Amino acid sequence: MTTPRPFTFFNGDVPLAAHVHRSGDPEERQPAVLITGSWLTVKEQMADRYAAALAERGFTVFTFDFAGWGASGGRPRYAELPARKVDDIVAAARAVSTLSSVRPGAIGYLGVCASAQYALRAVAQGAPIASYASVAGWFHDAATVAPFYGGADGVAMRLDRAAEALEAFHRTGEVRTVPAYEDGNDRAGMSFELPYYAEAGRGAVPTWTNEMAEFSWAYWLTYDGLSPASAVSVPSLFVHSDDCVLPDNVRTVANAVTGPVETVWTTGSQIDFYDQQEQVAFAVVAAAAHFEGTLS
Predict the structure, then answer these.
(1) Residue 121 located in a structural domain
(2) pLDDT in the model for residue 1
């Protein structure tokens, strides 16, 4: 088992708190993999779990908190801002590419859940990422995200709340927050039962603050996670299940990327891929084989 070492990237003047997972000779150049998790989360949740397993397989793995989250700097806090997260991914990949412990040109990215769609856009925008992997990837547009929130009426309600929160933010600087997760609370980011976020031994880790800036709805519900696929030509892997979210969107994205692509279908629910041994081990084996074959 590797012990993560603290590190910091910068996106402009904003420090992004990171962990480096690595085994073997500290001076050996290894292929690198950046890993991030779902929306509203921090690196100590799903990302570090995958990082530890891939580091044992000979990769130098970096996990990090996006701006405004966890130990990273940046304001506003707890805001799910897809464009800012994409910029953070680009900055992190560029920073990793300068390190002498990393094999030149051999940087991969593994996105779990929602960060898979942000990383897809970062690759499309030219981030120095040579290989891409999605695990239980969440890729949405306005039409396909709406059913998760009660359809058109539920979306309209949340966009109205976001508009009020944005008005308050512009007027006073106040960032109105709601729970990131609370079962049954329609103001929460995630209001349906997801035990991962409720259990201390799973996702309710000490470094995670259960908050979301309410104006995040204005950006999350209108994000286009599908169209960047046609601009992605790097080798790509999609690990998914029909019991995960939006499997048809994953198929659409996988069919749209223009580079070599592999899809690996298995069983398990969305949150099973966050921390359950069977699904995580399956995804790690697939991702390791993908990166070994594309970052050599």
Answers:
(1) yes
(2) 64
220-240 per-position pLDDT tens digit = 999 999 999 999 999 999 999
Q: Which residue has the tokens 């697939």?
A: 286
Q: What is the mean pLDDT of residues 50-64?
A: 97
Give me the CATH number covering residue 234: 3.40.50.1820
188 in a domain, yes or no? no
Q: What percent of the chain has pLDDT over 90?
A: 97
pLDDT of residue 229: 98
As a whole number of angstroms, the distance between CA 50 and CA 53 comes to 5
Tell me, yes or no, whether 120 lies in a domain: yes
Domain holding 269, by residue range, is: 5-145+224-294
CA distances to 28, 52, 181, 201 from 206, in Å: 33, 19, 15, 10
Total structural domains within the chain:
1
Question: pLDDT for 269-289, tens place per residue?
Answer: 999 999 999 999 999 999 999
Enclosing H/E stretch for 284: helix 277-294
- DSSP labels for 129-143? -SEEEEES-----HH
The 131-135 sheet, strands edge to edge: 5-11, 14-21, 60-64, 30-36, 102-112, 131-135, 236-241, 261-266
pLDDT band at 26 (very low <50, low <70, confident <90, very high): confident
> Is 258 within a domain?
yes
**Alpha carbon separation from 241 to 11, 54, 96, 144, 232 (Å, rounded):** 34, 21, 31, 17, 22
SS3 state of residue 173: coil
Question: Average pLDDT, stretch 71-83?
Answer: 98
Query: Could you give the C-alpha distances from 284 to 44, 116, 156, 280, in angstroms and in order?
Result: 17, 15, 39, 6
